[in-house]
Amino acid sequence: MREEIPTSTTQKWEYEIDVAHSCFRLEHISMDRVLLSGCGHESLEEVVVRIEINFRIEKSRMIRRVVLKKKGVQQAITSLFHFPEHHAVCRECGVLRLAEDDRAHCESCLFLEVYSTMKRDNNPPETCSICQEPAFRTMLPCGHVFHMTCLLSMNPHQLRCPNCREALPSSMIRQCFGVCHHCGDEEDDEEDDDEDEG
Question: What does the alpha-carbon distance between residue 87 and residue 9 come to, in Å, rounded to a whole number?
Answer without folding.
Answer: 32
